[in-house]
């Protein structure tokens, strides 16, 4: 605790000196999530709340694509990522050239890209989505089929919900692809009455075993409102860690998988980022306008 206290004190002081805000994804560890974050949320909230910030500096306690999105929304501000290696298996699964080839193959079919993607992939996109608004975004297009990339499982889950045909891409989240329906059934046997909530990046046969599926923010709302006695969050480990203190009456059953990318962000790393103003995110100027337009179209829906 003492170890954390030094870093927390330093970060709170540096935030004032630099006029900085810290945006933290729900998968950040409790000492980041509860002690230094100014804004916490799912990918949608982080993109939306990055829009009207007064600060000069934004520190993204999350992964690289989230920092890029914050930079797209704030081209004149300094956006820092405390560890540039904090990537994402989904963002790394596809290139802009891959998207161009898909568009050639399916001319006229709209391209919906998960925000878990690089700026150059977003620049080839009609509209972005997150797991929190994917259904709404896809339905707003009023078409029988869409190209939905790069998360194959999210696309299949949304196809199951909407009946809209998804042309997709074999990208997977390395955290959520590891859950299996057998594992969920075993936990139900061990914890009778447990409420199971699965993230839509899970394979469809895992989502089919769940009582509810939603983005990390939707999961948080569900637990706060429904107050289940026991809950199993089929997602990244820090979600249960962060929610335990907020929902003392709920027991969190924990099978979870760690995201090695999210875990590259630490209190010490955030402190160093603010001390040395490292590492600023930049976006090639040719990509800025088309990538920002894809995010803005999503936020307008
Ligand atoms: P959400 O927080 O938008 O549900 O996304 C989960 C995730 O895996 C982010 O990388
Ligand atoms: Fe990417 Fe999955 Fe990690 Fe989120 S949890 S950053 S989708 S690898």
From TrEMBL:
Cofactor section: [4Fe-4S] cluster
InterPro entries: NadA, NadA_sf, Quinolinate_synth_type2
Residues the entry annotates as binding iminosuccinate: 25, 43, 114-116, 131, 199-201, 216
Co-factor binding comment: Binds 1 [4Fe-4S] cluster per subunit.
Compartments (UniProt record): Cytoplasm
SUPFAM superfamilies named among the record's database cross-references: NadA-like
EC number: 2.5.1.72
Transmembrane segments: none
Free-text function comment from the UniProt entry: Catalyzes the condensation of iminoaspartate with dihydroxyacetone phosphate to form quinolinate.
Homology family: Belongs to the quinolinate synthase family. Type 2 subfamily.
Protein name (database record): Quinolinate synthase
């Amino acid at each position: 605790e003492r170890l954390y206290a030094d870093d927390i004190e330093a970060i709170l002081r540096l935030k004032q000196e630099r006029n900085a805000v810290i945006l933290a994804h729900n998968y950040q560890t409790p000492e980041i999530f509860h002690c230094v974050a100014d804004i916490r949320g799912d990918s949608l909230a982080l993109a939306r709340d990055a829009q009207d910030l007064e600060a000069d500096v934004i520190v993204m306690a999350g992964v690289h694509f989230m920092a890029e999105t914050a930079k797209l929304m704030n081209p004149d501000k300094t956006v820092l990522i405390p560890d540039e290696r904090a990537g994402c298996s989904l963002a790394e699964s596809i290139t802009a050239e891959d998207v161009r080839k898909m568009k050639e193959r399916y001319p006229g079919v709209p391209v919906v890209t998960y925000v878990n993607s690089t700026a150059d992939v977003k620049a080839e996109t009609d509209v972005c989505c997150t797991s929190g608004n994917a259904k709404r975004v896809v339905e707003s297009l009023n078409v029988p089929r869409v190209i939905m990339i790069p998360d194959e499982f999210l696309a299949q889950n949304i196809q199951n919900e909407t009946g809209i045909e998804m042309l997709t891409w074999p990208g997977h989240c390395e955290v959520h692809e590891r859950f299996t329906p057998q594992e969920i059934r075993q936990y139900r046997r061990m914890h009778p009455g447990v409420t199971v909530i699965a993230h839509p990046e899970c394979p469809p046969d895992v989502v089919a075993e769940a009582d509810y599926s939603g983005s990390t923010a939707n999961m948080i709302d569900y637990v706060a409102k429904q107050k289940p006695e026991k809950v199993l969050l089929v997602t990244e480990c820090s979600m249960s860690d962060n929610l335990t203190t907020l929902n003392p009456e709920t027991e969190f059953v924990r099978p979870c998988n760690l995201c090695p990318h999210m875990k590259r962000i630490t209190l010490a790393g955030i402190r160093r980022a603010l001390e040395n103003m490292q590492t600023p995110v930049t976006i090639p100027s040719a990509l800025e306008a088309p990538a920002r337009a894809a995010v803005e179209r999503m936020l307008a829906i």
